[in-house]
Design brief:
four-stranded mixed beta sheet, mainly alpha
Length: about 300
Amino acid sequence: MSRRRIIVACVVAGFSAGCAFTPPYVGQGPHLQVRRGHAIPFLDVPAEILALPGKLILWNGAFCNHRISQATEAKLISYLNAKTLPAFEQTTYRLNEYAPFQDLGALMRNKQVAWPYRLLLGLPITVVYDIVLTGRLFPWGDYYNPYTNVVHLYSDDAAVALHEAGHAYDFADYPLKGTYALLRILPFLDLYQEWMASENAVAYLVEQQDREGEFHAYRTLWPAYGTYGGAYLPLPLGSIAGAGVGHIAGRFKVKERREYYKRMDAVLGAPEEGLRRLQSSQQPATKSSNGATQLLEEWE
């Protein structure tokens, strides 16, 4: 998600709203890759107030709310269990957790990235963003640190969690991870990496036949992507303009996909029935199955 966006506006808006008590965090249960932070109201409440501009720009009240629900965590864990890449299986996920010493340890232990990258780039990035200006307080948004192989989550949004996990999965598929991380500083390369992370998230939701989750992902991830594209516009508030374009495009995409599913259901019937038909290789081709094939080709 977006980082380093309209920081000054965050600070100004932070003192213009009230606050509410943060309820105790409830986790899903033990998982080797997931770490769960405890609720700290005097820290979490100001952090959520500082995130108000981001909430408005993304039109997402769950952005940096520092209360990760059981439903969001469950979807993240399902995604982790569904993917198998060695580096991805070593990724740590911190859910609203501030763990500076553990992050430094992860930086030293992450042999997936060559030590020069970790020393010259990973160390300052980790110290600044994970320790000193931590996302536990400052509204950088959720993010993946490839030098520590750690995902930091602060938003109670399953699409955001899958997007950041998608970053980790994308990096896990590259042999030269340090170089891939370095390339992000080149113009427009960040757009490619952000798109790949979102594509990984959406593809998983489609695979799981989670239609509402897919629709929510378009409405959530496309505006966030727009902030990155908008940053390249020669405008004072290009990121905000980009988010606006993302909102419009995301909603058009939802409409398109709803129509696609409507036509598919008309051909195949209920989703469960359609799945059984597609999996059956013994039945002869019919008008309905040909229609289903055409719909699947449209998706591809």
